[in-house]
Design a protein that fits this description.
Number of strands of chain A: 0
CATH class of the domain at 44-175 in chain A: Mainly Alpha
Oligomer: homodimer
CATH superfamily of the domain at 44-175 in chain A: AhpD-like
Radius of gyration of chain A: 16 Å
CATH architecture of the domain at 44-175 in chain A: Up-down Bundle
Shape of chain A: globular
Largest interface: A-B, 47 and 47 residues
CATH topology of the domain at 44-175 in chain A: AhpD-like
């Protein structure tokens, strides 16, 4: 049960966005720009969603890891296997060497920003990562260290049914983050 | 030296805002609403800045802890002692019992959202904290777990001169977060 009185029928961060529209606006604007907009990053939306998924997985945030995992799957043309593999170990997943190096940086950021060192950055550059891509990877990982804490710090509802995450993933991958939230039937709660 | 090529003369997150205006916009909108706007929270701007300062201190983020400590000081009418005391131990600082209970929640969030339990929430309620105030404390702590990682994950410049932080603090406390950044003389870098 959530720690505060949140609107029923909306899982995870969506219940918080309904509860607090004044902070929902900049938070949705942030993820729209950071994850979804094809013109704001040279990383693909699928790559950016994988970084969000991996960070959320490291923070053991069930709602965010499952939601962004499902969005990543749809952004990657339905490839659920690569999403699962990234959550286990990005170094062994079928992703580009550049994305592996950025995942290493994301894992450092998840622990502490102070853990990122010049060798991590050099390794990413060797695989072709640009300043913008290093910037985006750090900010995505940092942003999900926020969302994961917001979602779990208030004990929001994380559905058990994989179909709920799949439906959210399909919606967000096609519509982005600025449309109305997916409402789950009350009977599923 | 920063991990990526950032504009000279701007410290900490301000150099990142200059580097990436597209993400700066929602991030500045977020802190304006969350920390500065007097109408969006029943916590005072000073109390909210103290939560940001304490979280940044726990994350050992020199730039954010010093900047928000200075903003908190100006928001609290110049009381530097209470800011220093909160950074050492909020339970022993001269702040309200309600704010102490919210600081305890912030410290849990800093570790992991999953660490906040029903006893932490009940203790805050016993001291008069409302749902909105618990929400705001969790989101402020979560937000600074993001900013601290963004600032340190890219190794931004954190000035040593306390006068720099004091000038930023004075500016942000009076102007909020949506005005142009404070530029430090190049010679101070």
């Amino acid at each position: 049960m959530p720690h505060i009185a949140l609107p029923a029928g909306f899982p995870g961060v969506r219940s918080l966005f309904m509860y607090s529209p004044v902070t929902a606006k900049p938070l949705n604007d942030l993820v729209q720009t950071l994850l979804h907009d094809p013109n704001t990053s040279t990383l693909t939306p699928g790559e950016r969603e994988l970084i969000a998924t991996y960070t959320s997985s490291l923070n053991e945030c069930k709602y965010c890891a499952n939601t962004h995992g499902a969005i990543a799957k749809y952004q990657l043309g339905g490839d659920a296997d690569v999403v699962k593999a990234v959550m286990v170990d990005p170094a062994a997943a079928e992703i580009t060497p550049k994305l592996k190096a950025l995942m290493n940086i994301a894992a450092k950021v998840q622990q502490s920003g102070r853990n990122v060192n010049s060798r991590d950055i050099a390794a990413a550059r060797e695989e072709g990562a640009t300043d913008n891509e290093i910037h985006d990877a750090v900010l995505i990982a940092a942003t999900f260290c926020m969302f994961n804490r917001y979602v779990d710090g208030l004990a929001t509802w994380a559905p058990d049914d994989p179909a709920v995450y799949d439906a959210i993933g399909k919606q967000r991958a096609s519509e982005g983050y600025l449309t109305q939230p997916f409402k789950v039937a009350q009977t599923q709660q």
